[in-house]
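Changelog-adjacent note: as of this version, every example in the card shows the full chain rather than a window. The one below runs 1259 residues end to end.
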Amino acid sequence: SLCGPGLTGPGLTGPGLLPVGLTGSKLGCAEGGCGACTVMLSRLKGDQQSLTPPLSHYSVNACLAPLCSLHLVAVTTVEGIGSVAQTLHPVQERIAKAHGSQCGFCTPGIVMSMYALLRNKATPTMDDLDDAFQGRCTKAHITTDGGCCGGGASGNGCCRTNGTADTEATPLFDAKDFVPFDPTQEVIFPPELMVKTDRSQSLCFHGDRTVWLQPNSLEELLSLKWKHPEARVVVGNTEVGIEVKFKNMVYPVILSPADHIWCLLFSVCSGIIFGASCSLSLMEAELRRAVDSLPLHQTQVFLAVLEQLRWFAGRQIRNVAAVGGNIMTASPISDLNPVFMAAGSNRDGLLSDGSRLVQMDSRFFTGYRRTALRPQEVLVSLEIPYSKKVRQFMSAFKQSPRREDDISIVTAAMSVTFSPDTSLVEELKLSYGGMAPTTVLAERTAKELIGRPWGEELLQAACSSLAEEMTLDPSAPGGMVTYRRTLTLSLFYKFYLTVLLKLRDQVWVRSDCLSEVPQGQHLDDVVGRPIMHLSALKQATGEAVYCDDIPLYENELYLALVTSTKAHAHILSIDTSLAVSMPGVVCCLFSEDVPGSNSTGPIVYDESVLADGQVTCVGHIIGAVVADTQSHAQRAAKAVKIQYEELPTVVTIQVTSHTPRVTSHTPKVTSHTPKVTSHTTASGHYSGDMHMGGQEHFYLETNVTLAVPKEDGEMELFVSTQSASKTQSLVAKALGVASNRILVRVKRMGGGFGGKESRTTILSTVVAMRPVRCMLDRDEDMLVTGGRHPFYAKYKVGFLDNGQVVALDVSYYSNTGNSMDLSLSVMERALFHMENSYSVANIRGRGFLCRTNLPSNTAFRGFGGPQGMIVAESWVTDVAQRLGRPAEEVRGHRAGKGVGGGGPVLDQFTLDRCWDECLRRSDYKQRRAAAHLYNRQNRWTKRGLAVVPTKFGISFTAVFLNQAGALVHIYTDGSVLVTHGGTEMGQGLHTKMVQVASRVLGVPISKIHISETSTNTVPNTSPTAASASSDLNGAAVHNACQVLVERLQPYRSANPKGCWEDWVSAAYFDRVNLSANGFYRTPDLGYDFNSNCGRVFDYYSYGVACSEVEVDCLTGAHKNLRTTVVMDVGHSLNPAIDIGQVEGAFMQGLGLFTLEELHYSPKGVLLTRGPGSYKIPAFGDIPSHLTVSLLRDAPNAKAIFNSKVRTEPRPPPHMNSGSSVRNKTVQTSVEFCKKRQNIPVPPVLEFQLMSVCMVNLFT
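Full-length structure tokens:
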């Protein structure tokens, strides 16, 4: 493929983009699901003899674009449209200066999606933007405007003209500073590709295992298909590419016809005919033109197709995926095939000896992934008919966990035609996907309803008949049998209502900075100002270097992992004979090859570098294969044969829903107050429990390590890690050398979220055994690294009649996975947040760590805080329901200034201010009244609001980690080099450190540079985690800079009119040391679990959020309409970065509690290993109105320059308080539709909501 080293397609080899130095396109998932690898393709179309032949520009996923398919096609990457050194493209400039880039790994792909849109439409609408970014991941990037436009928006898009302006808000950028976009100055199409020669030639490419044939005529295609009947026909490679990469399929012959030979489209009297190789985007555009120009009664079918295309994959996939390929894959959950079947579309099949017309009916799909076409046949065209009759109505439906770019649970298309001037059904077609091995028609039900009037009697008959006809075996693939059967009825009911009615907004993200710099602050003092992320411009142009972008070293080798396929087993034998005989293989490595200690682990050495005799999870690293290329190493790794003796496997911590399975007898007991928990004074009691699932980090850049050997046993490691020092020490241990021989360097990461705090070492320790490079594929990374800890909790609360909780007893059980990792600290954090922000006089919490045969779970943004606080929100909801009071009333019993619930000292308490500000800014009372009115007027969709407060403790719970170092050099030209112990992963830590140094030294930020984080400059660093990195490293940088300021002070005094360079030069010639170390340790920390005394956190961050959610009671589909967040970040060091982090944390929390779900088999195999099966929020999941505000006038004396962390590094373990607020807000906002007291298991998925709504009237 275009993206990746040495891959051009299924089984073929070639240059790719990486070896030629084009590293801007990033490999994020290798299955077209994230968009990080987006590039633009351009090709000639139409009349190629004209002086200005027309061009076609479209975005594609490079990871699925075979080089063989790009003959005479121009490829434009992000490097080709602008650079920092020369000229930035307006798109690159805007996304950088409007604070739209954080970790930056996906930024080039976003830039190229926008660039391709502009090449086709110079003045796009908001709908065009939504379409261009549809289906994209938002894990690290959701900023669509970065803040107030400063009056630069046109029309009614500016808040200053549409009446929504906030006079208190400070703009984060000025749109007037941007270079205007000039569409006439774009890159020209390469003249070399204008030539007519070879355009008519057929092509043939030979690879190691595959022959790629590109016929140039339909006759030649048919001849080749007759000769190779089992050959796969490939147009967009969106299906075969996935099969080859992830299913290890090998296709000896691939036929990829030239794009012109069957991409025809023309209108006939009965409809529009599309060639089978027409892209879905082309079909979409043609149908939209037809809808705009034809009478409504003729376009009912077209509208149904367009409705499904709206949610079909992302724009890059639709640009290349062929309509014929969609049909011939015969997926039982196809989005489009039910529409074609309900419409009665015709398909034209062609043999070498003639053609035949195939009707789209119940006989077309003959079995799972099979059609009525013979092996030698090819599908030539598809006719989509007009809806000719005035009284024909058609609708299409798709139900999936995520609306955009997600695999369907159930799809449906329904068409009804009425007799003239009546409501009597003349013809009815009900087509369903996801209810059988093929797309099916409910023919029996349709036949029964013919001749009936469209009314209640027909509805009841239809539901009864569908319930009998649309059956599923309890063991049907995909599960959710009851939900799927119910959906067939609910979707018909939606169709019924739609037809009955026929018979008789854009996304807005606003970021407000209420915390502005003090009056009189000098313009050169950048602290508190919305300074652009230091790497934003390089990220926007693709010039930012990530670990795998480092150029290949001479004779560099590649390593691929050999992992366990069993969750718990003895290893009986390992056979490498086939692997070592394969091309390019150098050696295989196993436990006996580890030169030092095979024991490893971040705290307890309970893991092994390579498995020795026993495996304890699927994905346990057993060995590695070293080869000359990535493809050779991976192919050989799959050829290693391992024999196992399976042992009993434990996957879940629960035997039943109320009895936890404790497999590790190491409970952690804590109490936040010396008082004995008492329920005797309470007027009411309630006992409950809940389970919270895990979460995948899904950083866009997967784990990667490059090992470079040096002399004297030294090893230089380039690693994408949050913990450079821990990587250094564990690699040294594995190699049997001292730490001073290991140098770990971290330039930047493409996201981390805690997943790169400790688990990166499982790769680094293996890679360090040989001088090699290894970057995990997305499915490998998800398989071996673990994620957020699933939790189970049991609680008992005692409360008064006014809703005040006076006693709480809670027990937490966490699924640690197969090793301890950081599980103990995660549990401690959960216990320290078990009361959230509520005042509880008597409280006891106990934690139990449960070891299972899953990959070790680890740090994740929030680090146990979300697990602890969601349980608190559960018992708050329980109390409110028991008392019949609004949940917000119970939440009003918050901790106050002084000693709060659980005993911590809450000084500088601002939670009440955040609460009042959030209610005011969200118009809570008016919105709640509007929601009540909406619910009275709408039977099947309901709305609800919730306001949730939170507090989050700031510090590592392990006291020794609350320290940081820094090193600052001043060079004789006046430039400054700053190094500190923190790592940059998109959270803007380096940017903030430069701002701190700028203020202390009194020099502009242009003179200050941070190169990287390395263990040879600042030793013994703490992980960039715990939301404490700005505080710790900022204070260390401040300390080092202050030392230098004092050394320069005599020269300032001697030459007060001089400049910075004069003082530095004078000090140098006077032999003054212009380098200084800085150090900081957080004072007065320490907690004793035995006496329940001490201070575990330095201070608390506070936040409040209000969300309004709408639920479709018929399907369980839900969407967040509006969210208002107010965060206390003290005096923000950089409000633009802080707001971006809050927005990103919100979306990650929305995914945790409403969307993301990990699926394991009973044998412990992770089934969700990529964006195709594991869905994180996309651009379209951002609330229609999202407002983030920073609290004004809330200085924090305990941190650098009176600041507070918010979500701090999104990668480190501690999620900021606002993120936790937003997580629970979304979950609790559906309280209005609950009929039971138990809360659905987070994530609250659609089938759970549907069952909770209890609106199934038909079964």
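Structural remarks: The radius of gyration is 31 Å.
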